[in-house]
């Protein structure tokens, strides 16, 4: 029974992990897309220390039920409705999502959306299309961000928090330390959802990665000193493991955590978003499984200090990758993001005519004039009566 429950939980979580960021990115206004796409973490850490695992499972089942009931009253994303030819429903959904009152207020966005959908429908969406160069770049970016998210060590750190504090020998109760770590994650995951639209994706990711580098460097040094001290915790440094992990969780929660999940919904090309999202999510969870499975083996091979320094090394590589290759998507519509990928491919080596046809502009200059990035007022200006 437990195995069946775990299978169903994993299956449904996988479906949710694909659908949620894509749906949110498609229905959200560009000015708040980052905030809405950033995920929020559960507080299992807090009540898990005081109740049995059966009660914890029952408590954890409440939120999915609440989400299910609430989603019954939420319309489909406007893009999906346009793809299905349901223009009236798409207009109604846009009015609701944008807080608008009149059809004229959402007509410009609907017109752009129709053009974008038509361009996407003209392209095939099979497995072979994942290998096209304009598609490979955004998929590879999303995969690499997932890779650095997993190899930052977040899953084993959270799953083995009690064991980590127990092995540190610090004079702090390992269960209450775990509660502190979980509470910090919840608080700063919420904060990260708002910071992502203020600072942008790249800056938060770089701050996050470098802060995690420093955290793991200090934590590894603590375990190195303990090893040099014959397995005895260094005097006066009992506070260091908890402080290091708090900084680590804060850094993860404001950058790599929320941005890692939201980026899939932002940068994947529309015509392969379903297939690519499934592949990326499956790869991400497989890497998470492998990292958690072999975490203790890594510690046995490298020692505690070597393991955390290894995680810090991956975070450092992630910092340099983001600095040199990760594009900023703040303030850009989904079509503008795809246009940038297409333009970067056009500037590459000479290609065949069929390849050039695959990268034709998503919007004509006239239709592209409607953009929330070039119209900072967004729907506020529409509500004030500026429909130009």
Automatic annotation (TrEMBL):
UniProt biased composition (Polar residues): 369-378
Q: What subcellular locations does the record give?
A: Cell membrane
A single MF term (Gene Ontology): transmembrane transporter activity
Q: Which residues cross the membrane?
A: 53-74, 135-154, 174-196, 203-225, 245-263, 275-296, 308-326
Q: Which Pfam families match?
A: Sugar_tr
Residues of the Major facilitator superfamily (MFS) profile domain:
1-330
Taxonomic superkingdom: Eukaryota
Keyword terms of this UniProt record = Cell membrane, Membrane, Sugar transport, Transmembrane, Transmembrane helix, Transport
Membrane topology is: Multi-pass membrane protein
Q: Segment Disordered: which positions?
A: 363-388
- Entries under InterPro entries matching the protein: MFS_dom, MFS_sugar_transport-like, MFS_trans_sf, MFS_Trehalose_Transporter, Sugar/inositol_transpt, Sugar_transporter_CS
One cellular component term from this protein's GO annotations in UniProt? plasma membrane
Q: What is its main location?
A: membrane
Protein name (Swiss-Prot/TrEMBL): Facilitated trehalose transporter Tret1-2
Species this chain originates from: Orchesella cincta (Springtail)
């Amino acid at each position: 029974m437990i195995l069946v429950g775990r299978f169903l939980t994993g299956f449904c979580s996988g479906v949710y992990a694909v659908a949620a960021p894509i749906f949110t990115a498609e229905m959200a206004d560009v000015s708040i897309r980052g905030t809405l796409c950033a995920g929020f973490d559960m507080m299992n850490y807090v009540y898990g220390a005081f109740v049995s695992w059966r009660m914890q499972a029952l408590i954890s089942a409440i939120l999915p039920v609440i989400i299910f009931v609430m989603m019954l009253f939420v319309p489909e994303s406007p893009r999906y409705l346009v793809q299905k030819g349901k223009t009236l429903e798409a207009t109604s959904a846009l009015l609701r999502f944008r807080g608008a009152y009149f059809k004229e207020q959402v007509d410009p966005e609907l017109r752009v959306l129709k053009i974008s959908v038509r361009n996407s429908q003209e392209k095939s969406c099979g497995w072979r299309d994942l290998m096209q160069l304009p598609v490979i770049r955004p998929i590879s970016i999303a995969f690499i961000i997932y890779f650095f998210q997993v190899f930052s060590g977040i899953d084993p750190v959270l799953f083995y928090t009690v064991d980590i504090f127990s092995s540190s020998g610090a004079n702090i109760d390992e269960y209450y330390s775990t509660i502190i770590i979980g509470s910090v994650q919840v608080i700063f995951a919420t904060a990260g959802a708002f910071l992502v639209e203020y600072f942008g994706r790249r800056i938060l990711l770089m701050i996050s990665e470098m802060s995690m580098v420093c955290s793991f460097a200090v934590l590894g040094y603590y375990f190195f000193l303990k090893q040099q001290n014959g397995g005895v915790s260094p005097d006066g440094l009992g506070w260091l493991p908890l402080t290091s992990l708090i900084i680590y969780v804060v850094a993860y929660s404001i950058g790599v955590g929320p941005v890692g999940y939201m980026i899939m919904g932002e940068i994947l090309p529309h015509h392969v978003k379903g297939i690519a999202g499934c592949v990326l999510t499956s790869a991400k969870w497989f890497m998470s499984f492998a990292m958690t499975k072999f975490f203790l083996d890594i510690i046995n091979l490298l020692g505690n200090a070597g393991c955390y320094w290894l995680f810090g090394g991956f975070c450092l590589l992630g910092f340099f990758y983001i600095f040199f290759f990760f594009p900023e998507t703040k303030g850009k519509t989904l079509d503008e993001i795809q246009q940038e990928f297409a333009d970067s491919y056009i500037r590459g080596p000479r290609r065949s005519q069929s390849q050039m046809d695959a990268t034709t502009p998503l919007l004509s200059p006239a239709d592209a004039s409607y953009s929330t990035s070039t119209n900072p007022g967004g729907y506020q200006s529409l509500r004030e009566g500026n429909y130009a």
